[in-house]
Specification:
The complex is a heterodimer of chains A (321) and B (501).
Chain A lengths: L5 H15 L5 H17 L6 H26 L7 H15 L5 H26 L4 H19 L9 H8 L4 H17 L2 H11 L1 H6 L4 H27 L8 H13 L11 H20 L4 H25 L1
Chain B lengths: L6 E10 L2 E11 L3 E7 L5 H8 L7 E6 L2 E3 L4 H6 L2 E4 L11 H6 L5 E2 L2 E2 L1 H15 L14 H14 L4 E5 L7 H16 L3 E5 L3 H7 L2 E6 L2 E7 L5 H9 L18 E10 L2 E9 L3 E5 L6 H8 L5 E2 L2 E4 L2 E2 L5 H6 L2 E4 L3 H5 L6 H12 L8 H15 L14 H10 L8 E5 L7 H16 L3 E5 L3 H7 L2 E6 L2 E7 L5 H9 L2 H6 L1
Parallel strand pairs in B: 3-10, 3-11, 6-9, 9-10, 15-21, 15-22, 19-20, 20-21
Antiparallel strand pairs in B: 1-2, 1-4, 4-5, 7-8, 11-12, 13-14, 13-16, 13-17, 17-18, 22-23
Helix pairs in contact in B: 4-5, 8-17
Classes of the chains: A mainly alpha (321), B alpha/beta (501).
């Protein structure tokens, strides 16, 4: 009885659903755009090929850890071990890629480590019903210790060609980010992926509806671990070597980016596009303050104030309604 | 009927922490019949639904699907058997769209991905049935409560159920939506679906259902055809029971002086309430759960923001602006949820008893342990609290915990006691002690405001009962007019029919 073709009626649901998800982050997109324009005016180098490459490379690892944190926060969890996992990814890449495993083997080791750490954390948090914040805090000591065991002091090496490919004068970082975002859209189009939202916001209702709540949450931890070690690999490629504490700042920055992007702490609130925009905003803020000559201490203070403001503004709006 | 029921419970029992909630209850859901399940608050209706849908397992008895006993009913098995439940608390996710919510847990797939084409078609069909015309991509968070309820019903229909259980589906629906739902249920019944319908709106039950099961304190008191009964008859089935000698002899001690008097009082769900609480009386607050009664107490106590045209509390004009001010005016509040609000469970009984006293001490004054011990021992003797006072409060039984929650206010000699369901989950013996205590307070010239979900308690203990429905006091029943029937009728809005009958 339907006169619309199947393909068209699919578009009639899928795309409107996607557009609706933009509503909450529209104002954030405008702020990010304004910052981008300001940045472009202050530093016209952004619009050259090398300027664009450098800019996306400085943003890329933050974007990955913001996604890693956001996917956990959507399920109602959180991770304080992201920085340590980034470090571990970096030292594994730096110790394996120049050795007998080669680049492919090293990349596989980095990926498997991330998936393994994430799955183990997920099992402990979800199956044993322990608080994520405690488990991942303890995990950050274990994982950070493991990174120091693998490489006690900065060293190791990344093959020069890989560093040039990822962190040289190429748009590789941007291409990779686009690919990762597309993979995320694909994941969110699977029943397990979309269950993230239900499992985070209303776990009892989701369970009663037949959603595999535990599986969805463990999968989120696994993906989060993979994104974190992936960010570590990229950071190692940027510096050309491994550093066992290089990721430390990413833990709090990942939370900051997710919160700026409108991800709620209670689970099920927010969107990945918001978290990515939040990470871009944070990255822009850090760059702008750096170029304007803020001291690192002033940068931290300003960053903290902006994040509190970002959380407070939607809250005020809600109270006024 | 000769056909096997699609879903049945045979002699099921269930207890929580030694408290029996259901005792030997049977119910059989036949195809093509709308079966009403009635009972007061706490009669065991929700527990029975949870047993039927596999969310809980019975302690005794069996759940049968099409005449075959199922040894371990689980939610997954229930879904496979075509049992769909529309719960009172919604199972929706606000950030997902209507269609994504309707299909949740049972998405059509293609190549491992959600098939949005098929989902749109099937969700649209389910929405048509319940009259939901909003775009399927609308996030559920943007819908009103009534529309969400319709999404919840559509979600159940999407699964093509053979047994449909609806737990108070109309409590948040408009008249139009209710009409759509009743027409729909009528049609589904014609298609041979078995429907279990729980509602407090008796006129709906009379119009829609063919058969009724009535629960009273976890026991099935009626399982009969609805033909030949009226609303008043149903109310009698729900409350009919002998109160026994649980209650103390009632004697009036009411004086004409007002302890609390408010006009046009609004707080939380409550709107434009006029209320006078007199010294020396027990004023009951009745009504179905969640009609705003708790907000009335909290508003008077200054614990939530309240507005009023005029008010006086113990002779002082205006409402207390906060809990410390309310305490200073002689108000004390005992919450219903003693585990979360009334007590600090992991702390010793004596600390719990002294907590209001701490609030009155100068902040840096040293505590006198000896004086505290003496006061606590006196209180324990006065209220009959058994056990070592140095133990954690969680070691006490529910009844004794409630006594501690009451005892902590006694040293301050409150003039008005605001009690929120003080006998919920309390054993019979302690109930009796609490009743005696409340009458004694009233006799001593204090005012007691007793919010209760237990109707007999209101009838036998109170001087007057204010019945709350949908945020308003719909009736104030004087002692002479108090009966379980009048209270339940007023609470359910059935009084018009009763007068006519």
């Amino acid at each position: 009885m339907s006169t619309v073709s199947p393909a068209k009626s699919a578009g009639a649901l899928y795309w409107p659903v996607q557009m609706r998800r933009n509503i909450g982050v529209r104002s954030l997109f405008i702020v990010v755009l304004a910052f981008l324009v300001a940045y472009g005016v202050l530093f016209p180098g952004l619009f050259s090929a090398s300027g664009f490459a450098k800019f996306t490379q400085s943003w890329f690892p933050l974007a990955l850890v913001a996604m890693a944190q956001a996917i956990l926060m959507l399920t109602g969890g959180i991770s304080l071990a992201i920085g340590a996992t980034v470090s571990l990814g970096a030292v594994i890449a730096a110790t394996t890629m120049a050795g007998p495993l080669g680049v492919a083997g090293g990349a596989a080791a980095v990926a498997l480590t991330g998936l393994g750490i994430g799955t183990a954390t997920g099992f402990i948090v979800v199956r044993l019903r322990l608080p994520a914040i405690v488990v991942t805090l303890a995990g950050s000591f274990i994982i950070g210790g493991a990174a120091l065991l693998v490489l006690p002091r900065p060293g190791g090496a990344i093959p020069a060609w890989l560093s040039d490919l990822l962190a040289g004068n190429t748009p590789a970082a941007f291409v990779l980010l686009v690919a990762i975002v597309l993979l995320w859209k694909l994941y969110l189009a699977t029943p397990l992926g979309l269950s993230l939202y239900a499992a985070g916001e209303n776990p009892v209702g989701a369970y009663r509806s037949g959603v595999p709540v535990d599986a969805a949450r463990v999968a989120a931890y696994a993906i989060s671990g993979l994104l974190s070690t992936g960010a570590g690999l990229f950071v190692a490629a940027q510096t050309g070597s491994g550093d066992p504490v290089i990721g430390t700042a990413f833990t709090l920055n990942s939370i900051a980016a997710a919160v700026l992007g409108g991800i709620g702490f209670l689970g099920g609130q927010g969107t990945m596009r918001g978290a990515l925009a939040g990470s871009l905003l944070l990255s822009l803020m850090i760059s702008v303050m750096f170029f304007l000559g803020f001291t690192p201490v002033a940068q931290y203070v300003a960053q903290g104030l902006i994040i509190i403001g970002a959380v407070a503004i939607p809250q005020f709006r809600k109270v006024q309604q | 009927m000769t056909t096997a029921p699609l879903l049945a419970a045979r002699g099921v029992s269930k207890s929580f922490f030694g408290n029996p909630v259901l005792r030997d209850v049977s119910i059989a859901l036949q195809p093509g019949r709308v079966h009403a399940l009635l009972g007061e608050n706490g009669a065991g209706k929700s527990t029975l639904i949870n047993l039927l849908s596999g969310a809980l397992r019975p302690d005794g008895g069996a759940i049968e699907v099409e005449g075959r006993a199922v040894s371990r009913m689980t939610p997954a098995l229930a879904r496979q058997a075509g049992i769909a439940v529309v719960q009172q608390e919604l199972s929706l996710t606000a950030s997902l769209s209507i269609a994504e919510n309707i299909g949740l847990g049972a998405y059509p797939r293609r190549l491992g991905l959600i098939d949005y084409t098929a989902l749109a078609a099937r969700a649209r069909a389910a929405c048509e049935l319940v009259g939901l015309h909003e775009p399927l991509s609308t996030p559920v968070g943007h819908l009103s409560l009534g529309r969400r309820q319709m999404v919840e019903i559509a979600k159940a229909l999407y699964r093509k159920p053979r047994v449909l259980i609806l737990d108070e589906p109309t409590s948040s629906l408009s008249a139009t939506e209710t009409k759509i739902l009743t027409d729909l249920l009528e049609r589904l019944r014609g298609e041979g679906i078995a429907i279990l319908y729980i509602s407090h709106r008796l006129n709906e039950v009379m119009a829609l259902c063919q058969h009724v099961t009535v629960l009273k304190d976890g026991i099935c008191t009626a399982d009969r055809s609805l033909a030949g009964t009226d609303a008043a008859g149903l109310v009698r089935l729900m409350v009919g029971r002998d109160p026994g000698d649980l209650f103390p002899q009632w004697q009036t001690s009411k004086s004409p002086a007002d302890a609390i008097s408010v006009r046009n009082f609004s707080a939380g769900l409550m709107r434009d309430v006029d209320l006078d609480v007199r010294t020396g009386e027990v004023l009951g607050i009745g009504g179905l759960v969640g009609q705003g009664q708790e907000d009335l107490l909290l508003g008077l106590y200054g614990a939530i923001p309240a507005r009023t045209a005029s008010a006086s509390v113990n002779g002082v004009p205006g409402l207390p602006g906060g809990v410390p001010k309310a305490n200073a005016l002689g108000l004390a509040y005992v919450p219903a949820d003693r585990k979360r609000e009334g007590l600090h469970l992991i702390h010793p009984i004596i600390t719990n008893m002294m907590l209001p006293a701490f609030a009155r001490l100068p902040a840096l004054k040293l505590r006198s342990r000896r004086a505290e011990r003496e006061t606590a021992r006196g209180l324990a003797a006065q209220l009959g609290i058994k056990g070592d006072l140095a133990r954690a409060a969680q070691a006490l039984s529910g009844g004794n915990q409630q006594k501690v929650a009451l005892a902590k206010w006694m040293p301050h000699d409150p003039l008005v006691l605001l009690l929120n369901d003080p006998t919920r989950g309390v054993d019979v013996e302690t109930k009796r002690e609490i009743y005696l205590m409340l009458r004694a307070f009233a006799a001593a010239g204090k005012a007691v405001v007793l919010l209760s979900s237990d109707t007999p308690e209101l009838v036998h203990l109170c001087d007057r009962v204010a019945v709350v429905r949908e945020g308003r006091i719909v009736a104030t029943l004087e002692r002479g007019a108090l009966s379980e029937e009048t209270i339940v009728s007023a609470a359910m809005g059935a009084e018009d029919r009763k007068v006519a009958a």
